[in-house]
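REQUEST FORM: STRUCTURE PREDICTION
Request ID: SP-0412
Submitted by: Lab K.M.
Chain count: 1
Length (residues): 221
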Amino acid sequence: MCFSAEADFVSGAVIGAVGVITLTKVEKPRELALGVLPLAFALHQIVEGFVWRSLSDPVPHQGDGVAVYVYVVFAWVVLPILGPLAILLVERDDRRRHAMWAFVAIGAVAGLYLLGAVLSNDITAHIAERTIQYGGAGSSADLATALYVIATCGAPLVSSHPKIRWFGVANLFAVAAIATIQSQGLTSVWCAWAAVVSVLIFMQFVSWRRADREPQLAASA
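STATUS: Completed
RESULT:
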């Protein structure tokens, strides 16, 4: 895959439009965390556009590292917790919801470990093979990555909502493919993929709102 500042800015703008439309479909408080994810992914892509700009400029500028830390904190700390929790909040099946708490806990363990790594280590970022490779996750980075994948892919896989399950399946295959081809660029490429498949979240909201309207249409017929 070929990525650049321009690619991140364009994808961020497109996905941002999907994110705004998705938010207009949110009607229940429990849907908000999931509904905000596409927009969050879009903003995340835009932040990485600024990371590209800072890494591509031969002259360092004050504040260049801010975008790197903002990107990493969302990718490493916020997402492994928010992702499973957002899916849990919209789940109506009690057994599936109870199972999802395990994934939220696993995500929290990964996120808190990575937060400690961010606070205690110097986070690095450099361009390699058309992606940005982020470093500084510490000596247990591989274990944290495994827990991260389990949390973010496992929760949607046990969802009772078909499109959310497809979100998990797509991410699982994407993580496997990316890790095989370019493990060091996993953070950058996987987050880009997750942003693209945000359209599945939008489609799930469309399905919910259509289902909400059906009883009203039947009553008025």
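NOTES: The CA atoms of residues 41 and 145 lie 19 Å apart.
Reviewed by: T.R.
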